[in-house]
Amino acid sequence: MSFQRYMAMALYEPGFGYYVNGLHKFGAAGDFVTAPEHGRLFALALARQLEPLASRLGKNWTLMEPGPGSGSLARDVLSQLRNPPARYLLLETSAPLREVQRETLSALSEDLRSRVEWIAAPPDRGFDGAVIANEVIDALPVARFRVGETGIEQAVVTFVDGRLAWDYAPAEGRVLRAVEQVISDLPQPPGVGYTSEVCVDLPEWLDTVTAPLKRGMALMIDYGYPRREYYHPDRNDGTLVCHYRHRAHFDPFAWPGLTDLSAFVDFTAVAEAAQACGFEVAGFTSQAGFVLGSGVADQLEQVTDERDRMRLSGELKRLVLPGEMGDKFKVMALVREGDGALGGMPEAFALSDQVDRL
Ligand SMILES: C[S@@+](CC[C@H](N)C(=O)[O-])C[C@H]1O[C@@H](n2cnc3c(N)ncnc32)[C@H](O)[C@@H]1O
């Protein structure tokens, strides 16, 4: 089978896939820690960017979060917004994860909890508001390709001596077209043997998930690079990465269903897909730029207890230091029906906007 199909099964096969088998994934006891799991600062940075939008849209705005994980981001965004949305939609198909989210959100006030709804697909009825996707795009199955002697090859998964193994076949159809499009956009074509990934389903996913957003902003946060860095000649073995109990490894055939599989995000591809479905790219920066630009470091000054200050400063460091999440993670703001009426670039991007790197 194609690697993309294998990755889809390893992550989402009902009952067995990594995200649907009911085992613990998020936080210290799981396999990886995402930004919202470090504390409340990341959610506060996002909430501050939503505040101006919320005031312009009025009380009846909606926030939708695909792939809400443990529910920490929903809890902390809701509790830190001065103008909380009338509805917070959690797009989650996994029953075990819905349970985890329900538990997390039980910490909220009755009023805030009553605004939360679980949905299995984006709603048919449109809304004004925002969509936030943190570390969702990296979990979309990717196709892996290699530049062969006679053309582009696509990675397939086969069995050798009873074990899963890589093989390659000539690429065709959507995969071939996607790879050719990427290559035509690079300053120089990659040489024979160059191997990487492409997320063929990204345009369709973005279109589907943002379809109900009539007016407002979508914030996409993930590890990734602009295209020229993503497909840099030195990065010649792709960006596929697996996580098992806080260790990164590079063997997607080890423990399928128990290990997380993901690939970095080509943010130029996100921008192209977004423009094709009517968005303007209003901002793009590193997570460090975004968090510092949002001004949440001011929280440190407001804490008097020395222990709390240490904890908060540790949290800030994890979010912004280059060796931690600061550089590797990027934040992209997409605005639909902007015309300046929705305020253009959110404030947090102004510190180090990098749209021209896309
Ligand atoms: C790495 S987790 C991130 C969870 C959470 N957003 C966080 O930051 O902790 C990726 C999540 O995206 C979800 N996901 C993957 N594909 C999706 C899709 N097509 N639509 C919605 N969610 C999806 C997965 O089920 C998983 O919960």
What does this structure look like?
- With 358 residues, this protein is of the alpha/beta class.
- The chain has a single domain (34-140, 202-254, 265-357), classed as 3-Layer(aba) Sandwich (Rossmann fold).
- 33% of the residues lie in helices and 25% in strands.
- The chain has 13 helices and 15 strands.
- Strands 1, 2, 3, 4, 9, 13, 14 and 15 form an eight-stranded mixed beta sheet that branches. A four-stranded antiparallel beta sheet has the order 7-6-5-8. A three-stranded antiparallel beta sheet has the order 11-10-12.
- Helix 3 (41-57) crosses helix 4 (72-80).
- It is globular and about 60 Å long.
- S-adenosylmethionine binds at residues 19, 26, 34, 36, 66-69, 73, 91, 94, 97, 134-136, 139-140, 205.
Structural class: alpha/beta
- Helix-residue proportion: 25-40%
State the shape. globular
Distance between the first and last residues' Cα: 33 Å
Low-confidence stretches: none
CATH class: Alpha Beta
CA radius of gyration: 20 Å
